[in-house]
Amino acid sequence: MKITILCVGKVKESFYRDAIKEFEKRLSRYCKLNIIEVADEKTPDQASDTEVAQIKEKEGERLLKSIKEDGYLICLAIDGAQPDSVKLAKKIESIGINGISHLYFVIGGSLGLSDAVLKRADYKLSFSNMTFPHQLMRVILLEQIYRSYRIINHEPYHK
């Protein structure tokens, strides 16, 4: 399966980049992984609701340009489903079994995802009701994808 992780913004901290590289290496035996970063918009202090909507819309347009119609789109969203690791593994496995060869995960910017991106989603996934920095979320997502493949292949992984 091909997995593309679409992210708004770049990862600046070297410790996050190191963790991302490690999971990219680990995942290389299970899937073809691609991470695409799109530019984030500057958010003015005390941005109005209109400004927030415009920023999310611009970032959303950039994200949607990278998604092919035949791909399955999972958006990370606070109101998404909160499966445990085994259920997430089953979800990823079932997507492949159903003949879908390209799976997309989308991580929004600091303001979240646009309505257009969320409407395009085939599934919304949440790791918690808490808010995390999107750089950290990238590491958490990669770890959970890796854990999913270990579960799918009946391979040991710490619990």
Description of the structure:
By secondary structure, the chain is of the alpha/beta class. It has a single domain (2-42, 49-153), classed as SPOUT methyltransferase, trefoil knot domain (Alpha/beta knot, 3-Layer(aba) Sandwich), CATH 3.40.1280.10. 43% of the residues lie in helices and 21% in strands. Strands 2-1-4-3-5 form a five-stranded parallel β-sheet. Helix 1 (14-27) packs parallel to helix 5 (134-152) and helix 3 crosses helix 5. The protein is globular. The model has no long low-confidence stretch (mean pLDDT 95).
Largest sheet: 5 strands, parallel
CATH fold category name: Alpha/beta knot
Q: Which regions have little confidence, pLDDT < 50, spanning 5+ residues?
A: none
Tally of individual helices: 5
- Computed structural class: alpha/beta
Overall average residue pLDDT: 95
> Count of DSSP E strands?
5
Outline type: globular
Proportion of residues in extended strands: 15-25%
Element pattern in H and E:
EHEHEHEHEH
Task: Tell me the count of domains.
Answer: 1
Subcellular location: Cytoplasm
Protein name: Ribosomal RNA large subunit methyltransferase H
GO cellular component, one term: cytoplasm
EC number: 2.1.1.177
